[in-house]
Structure formats: structure tokens, C-alpha cells
Specification:
Strands 4, 5, 6, 8 and 9 form a five-stranded antiparallel β-sheet that branches. Strands 1-2-3-7 form a four-stranded antiparallel β-sheet, with no helix packed on it. It has strands at 6-11, 14-22, 34-44, 50-61, 66-72, 80-81, 86-95, 100-110, 115-125. It has one domain (6-125): Immunoglobulin-like (Sandwich), CATH 2.60.40.1470. It is built from no helices and nine strands. Strand 1 (6-11) and strand 2 form a beta hairpin. The protein is an all-beta fold.
């Protein structure tokens, strides 16, 4: 599997694009503190409205330490996306190693109340990451 600093996955009409960048100004390598910023764009490419309910992240560092983060919404919001609409946000992830990976799922709900999981593809957190690119629309 190639190592990539971004991901682009579509599940049941919901497209999730992710890109990460090392934040040198916020990191302290001598203290084993490496900070990464990431940008997520969520697009409804399907034919039905869907609302994001929760998130589940799996973060692995270079020592294979696993951290799971679960919570409601994203950055305090619950995007409700009609077909053709998008929502993007930026957040951060601290690591105690120089590199790691992130991946996970979002739980969405359709208007009829049915819930489904949407994949967030694995992307790498590494100091050699290029600047966060503008995600293709």
C-alpha cells in the first residue's frame, strides 16, 4: 500500500477527502511533541440528504500505539448535507512520535432515520508532508 498524505473515499454517496500537514511551529521534537493539522471535506455526491451524527478516529503512532477518539459531530457541528452540498473543516492531532496514521468513520443519518457508517480513508502524518493542498471539488 503506498503511503499517502491524503485520502479520498466515497461511501453510500458521501465523499470524504482528507489531507494532513506537519505544524513545525507548534511542535517540539526535542520533547517528543509532533503536531499535525488536517483538513477534511465532506461532500454529498448521492441523491439523499444526510446529517453527520458522530465521528470515530483511529490514530496510530510510529510505535504502534493506538488511540481511538469518539464523539458527537465534528468541531461542534452536525453538517446536514443535501445532494451536491459540501462541508469542510480543519483540526489537529498531536503525536509523541515523528509520524503516524489516521483513519476512521463518520456516522450519518438519512431523513428516514436510517444510520450508516462512512469511511475516512487512512492518511499519513509525517514531517515530510507537503502543505495541505486545496482538495479537489
Amino acid at each position: 500500500m503506498p503511503q499517502t498524505h491524503s485520502s479520498d473515499v466515497t461511501t453510500q454517496g458521501i465523499r470524504v477527502q482528507a489531507a494532513a500537514q506537519y505544524l513545525a511551529a507548534e511542535s517540539r521534537p526535542e520533547q517528543r511533541q509532533f503536531v499535525y493539522g488536517y483538513r477534511i471535506e465532506i461532500s454529498n455526491t448521492g441523491g439523499q440528504r444526510a446529517r453527520l451524527k458522530s465521528r470515530h478516529w483511529v490514530i496510530l503512532d510510529a510505535d504502534n500505539n493506538r488511540q481511538e477518539v469518539r464523539g458527537p459531530g465534528v468541531i461542534g457541528k452536525y453538517p446536514d448535507l443535501a445532494p451536491g452540498e459540501s462541508f469542510d473543516y480543519c483540526s489537529g492531532c498531536p503525536l509523541s512520535t515523528k509520524w503516524g496514521t489516521m483513519e476512521g468513520t463518520y456516522t450519518f443519518q438519512r431523513e428516514d432515520g436510517g444510520e450508516f457508517e462512512v469511511a475516512i480513508g487512512r492518511f499519513f502524518l509525517a514531517p515530510s508532508n507537503p502543505r495541505i493542498p486545496a482538495l479537489a471539488r
